[in-house]
Design brief:
single chain, about 240 residues, alpha+beta, 4-stranded antiparallel beta sheet, two-stranded antiparallel ribbon, 6 strands, about 35% helix, rod-shaped
C-alpha cells in the first residue's frame, strides 16, 4: 500500500503515513475490470488475464500505459494529383516553327519590297529618258526645218552648220550659225524646254545631224535624236558624242 499524499510504501494496516503523517483512508480493493480478480494495490497488470489496470485506480503509471497501448499509426494525407505538364520539347518545337514562319514571311516581304522598288526605279528611268529623247526630237525637227529652208535658198549645209553646244536659256547669239542657234532657242522656248543642247553631225560630209538635250550639266539623262538613247545605255553616252544603239 502507498500513501495517497506522498506516495511512500506503507503497510496495509497503517492508519497514518510513517513518512508524512497523513491519515490513511481505507483503500478499496483493486479489481481487474475484465476478469474481476482482486489485485495487489501496486499491480500494473492483472496476474490472471494480463489486462492493464485502469486509470481510475490511480495505480497505472504513464510509462505502463504507454507500453500497454500501442500508438495509432499517423494518418497519411492523400497527395493531390498534379496536372500533367506539357512536354517542354513540344513547346520548344512550336516556338521554333513560329520563328521559322516569321522569318520566311519577313524574307518574302523583303523580296517584294526590293522587286517593287526596282520596278519603280526602272519605270522612273524610262520615263525620264523618254522626256529627254522627246526634247531632243523636238529640237532636231527645229534644226532640220531651219537647215532645209536655208538649203532651198541656195546655201550649202556644211557652211551654215557648225557642231556646237550651248545653254538654251542663256546663249550668245553670235557666230556663223547664229540663225540656227536662234531657231533652236525659239523652239525650246515654245516647247517649254530648259537646259542644254548639243547639235553635231555623224558623217564626214556633215549632212546628217543629231541633237542631244539634257536638263543640266549634272543630269544623268541625255536625250538624243535620231537613235533615242535607252534607259539601260545612259552610262555609255558621253555628252556631245553621237551614240547609236
Amino acid at each position: 500500500m502507498r500513501c495517497t499524499y506522498c506516495g511512500s510504501e506503507i503497510r496495509d494496516s497503517m492508519k497514518y503515513c510513517n513518512v508524512c503523517g497523513a491519515v490513511m483512508a481505507a483503500a478499496a480493493p483493486l479489481i481487474c475490470k475484465k476478469c474481476g480478480t482482486e489485485l495487489l494495490s501496486d499491480s500494473v497488470f492483472c496476474d490472471i488475464c494480463g489486462t492493464p489496470v485502469g486509470e481510475e485506480s490511480g495505480s497505472v503509471p504513464e510509462t505502463a500505459k504507454a507500453a500497454a497501448v500501442p500508438d495509432k499509426p499517423a494518418r497519411k494525407e492523400k497527395k493531390k494529383k498534379k496536372a500533367p505538364k506539357e512536354p517542354a520539347d513540344k513547346d520548344k518545337g512550336a516556338s521554333g516553327k513560329l520563328k521559322i514562319i516569321i522569318l520566311i514571311a519577313a524574307l518574302i516581304v523583303a523580296v517584294i519590297v526590293i522587286a517593287v522598288t526596282a520596278i519603280v526605279i526602272g519605270n522612273n528611268n524610262k520615263a525620264e529618258m523618254k522626256k529627254a529623247n522627246d526634247a531632243a526630237a523636238s529640237l532636231y525637227e527645229a534644226a532640220e526645218n531651219h537647215l532645209f529652208d536655208k538649203e532651198t535658198s541656195g546655201y550649202y549645209r556644211p557652211f551654215i552648220f557648225a557642231a556646237e553646244a550651248f545653254e538654251i536659256e542663256n546663249f550668245a547669239n553670235t557666230g556663223s550659225n547664229r540663225e540656227l542657234r536662234t531657231a533652236l532657242h525659239n523652239a525650246a522656248e515654245s516647247s517649254g524646254l530648259k537646259g542644254e543642247v548639243y547639235i553635231g553631225h555623224y558623217d564626214e560630209d556633215e549632212h546628217h545631224i543629231f541633237v542631244q538635250w539634257r536638263r543640266s550639266e549634272s543630269s544623268k539623262y541625255i536625250g538624243q535624236y535620231p537613235d533615242p538613247i535607252k534607259a539601260g545605255d545612259m552610262k555609255k553616252v558621253k555628252w556631245g558624242e553621237y551614240y547609236k544603239n
